[in-house]
Amino acid sequence: MKRSITIALLLLVTHVSWAQTANELVEKIRIDFKTINDLKCDVQMNFDIPGVAIEKINGKMFYKKPDKFRVQTKGLIFLPKQNPFEQLELLDDPSSYIAILAGESVVNGIACHNINIIPNNPEELVIMRLMVGKKDGRIHKSELTLKREGTVTYFNTYANATDILPREMEFMADFRRFKMPKAISGDFSSTPVREDETQGKYETGKVKMVISNVELNRKVDDSVFTDSGS
After folding, report:
1. Sign of dihedral through CA atoms 182, 185, 190, 195?
2. Confidence band (pLDDT; 50, 70, 90) for 219?
3. Whole-number percent of the chain with pLDDT over 70
4. Best CA proximity match to 45, nearest among 230, 189, 203
5. Considering only CA atoms, which of 42, 43, 46 is closest in space to residue 205?
6. Closest CA to 216 of 49, 61, 51, 1
């Protein structure tokens, strides 16, 4: 009996210690993200979406706290449902989730801690898994498991050791379940692909966003995020 109690106490202490470490790692990410309020940059988008061939698109990307996001290109208004900063926004309220260390992994050659983020009151998000660099404390990969859309995976690539924002963000999703952007209008170079050419061939679609000429915290007007602001 005494031995069982001792083992239980050791497990409890270990769990608490790991939980604290996970919270510390998440806290650093939160603090870094808090320094960003407004963002404007150039973006090049590359698509690999099942059933549709879309040539790469260049445009402007805008973000504003707490959750406004938009990409504008010539002749195209692109309103992605999937905000690439969503993973960071979800961390903003520590009381809304539990962070637990869940092993280690290597992402693009970078040793990472795996952290599971479990919402206290899950709605669309079931769980978020973050792969955080052991040395730099930045998110290199994240997996969001959503009730309706399955798992969405993000890969982040940073240009410099001190960068808070990645210069390349690629997200992957099962586009048979994933909702396409709510509003796409204008003339963009898309080449329809016959259904029988892709049927059963793809399970996962990809969108890669390469950003440059970043302007941080120069006020972005709210009108940018409306149709009239395009």
Report:
1. positive
2. very high
3. 73
4. 189
5. 46
6. 61
Nearest to 179 by CA among 147, 156, 211, 142: 147
- pTM for the full model? 0.77
Q: What is the mean pLDDT of the chain?
A: 79
- Which residue type, as a one-letter code, is found at position 25? L
Residue 78 CA to residue 202 CA, distance in Å, equals 23
DSSP bridge partners of 41: 61
Q: CA 113: distance to chain centroid?
A: 17
For the segment 209-217, the average pLDDT, to the nearest whole number, is 94
Token duo for residue 218: 């120069």
Contact in structure between 89 and 79 (CB atoms under 8 Å): no
Q: Which pLDDT belongs to residue 204?
A: 79
Q: How far is CA 121 from the centre of its chain?
A: 20
Strand partners, 142: 130, 154
Side chain identity at 32, as an amino acid letter?
Answer: D
